[in-house]
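[Automated response] Your request has been received and processed.

Submitted sequence:
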Amino acid sequence: MQPIHIALLIIAYFGILILISYLTGKSANNETFFKANNASPWYLVAFGMIGASLSGVTFISVPGWIEKQQMGYMQIVLGYIAGYAVIGLILLPLYYKLNLTSIYSYLKGRFGIHSYKTGATFFLLSRTIGAAFRLFLVANVLQLILFDAYQIPFWLTVTITILLIWLYTFKGGIKTIVWTDTLQTLFMLIAVGVCIVMIKDAMQIESLFTYISENKLSKMFFFEDVKAGNYFWKQFFSGAFIAIVMTGLDQDMMQKNLTCRTLKDAQKNMFWFTLVLVIVNFFFLALGVLLTDYAAMNDIAAHKDQLFPTIAMSGELGLATSLFFLLGLIAAAYSSADSALTSLTTSFSIDILEIDKKENEKEKIRIRKITHIAFSFLLIITILIFKYVIANESVISKIFQFAGYTYGPLLGLYAFGLFTKFKVKDTLVPYICIISPISTYLTSIICKYSFDFDFGFFVLILNGFYTFLGLFIIKKTSLYK
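Generated structure:
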């Protein structure tokens, strides 16, 4: 593809998103921005959440994992099913019963103001780093294939990227996101489907499912080595808890669920979302098998995150493959980033600034708009720090992994709140939530080098356990009623 074709594709893509923003943002207020007036059709929310769950990182990385990990990622995906069941049966009823806008408001009523602010802060930190990292990867790709050709510097690429997201979210907020995520999920799934068909035809495969099932890379379940990071039960339970914390305890994902008309609609949304997500992940892994074999057959020296982009953009599979790969990548990246910006604005406005306590509606809207702009600038600055200050991809990846540690304290806080009746010494909760991730990191390092035991994604559960244990130590004798 020529740079001009890519530029026209991006312009057309964002033109559609801005049109949707215009149509959904009419007569919008804070209730629209934060909760879409509780009028979102559940099936749109369910479909749109697929795109938000599968970011640009997933779009590129999951197919690239096949060469080293085979289809073992499905162990984590199967764990998601158990995690989403917990969300649908325990967390959603709680959120609807309390009529929450920010899900961290629960912590205020259960433990106190310090726990509430701590939970919100950990979310804000994690989501800011995570969203910035995802956009950083996509901005790098766009810089390479488009903006370098026009001698546009990286900082301007990032600024334009965030400006476009702000432009179609600043008015309608979550109401706009529900509709744009639906469109972006559709683009992403079409992209995966087109790429699978094109590679299947290029390799002259008659039956895709027969080819995948008989392939040596299709092994899904690993029970052999309990110490290994890919041991089945380790990954299954990690998947369950990842789903709970990164969906059920994440303002970004739950904000969409809370826009549904009723609890029953939200639960239907969660059920169908789970089913479709499992199927979509399987096809991502199937695509990875095809890409890995195609690269080996054609002596293409591309691995991991470079595998999918290299093959798709080479032109060997036709213009349609390059076109839809780029469209799918942009859709996956921005469906995650736009909802992240909206949820960050929501959480900071309600949890930190507490604008719901203000009586003047115009003042509330003014504060929300300023917060929205401020987080847009924060994302730009964070991405530029990744590029120019840290400038080391391995270190940046570690930062992204470290962001996962911030969900452990949320897991421990909610588990303690839901499954015990103890009150805690609220002023000590921030210290517990800081000590727990540090203890988790030290434990994982010691076990890795002393016993060759890899916790893998299981560090999330360990982190939550340490937080739970810390809360038990600082509990009060009186019970929560």
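Summary generated for your ticket: The mean pLDDT is 86. Residues 263-297 form the longest helix (35 residues).
If you did not submit this request, please reply to this message.
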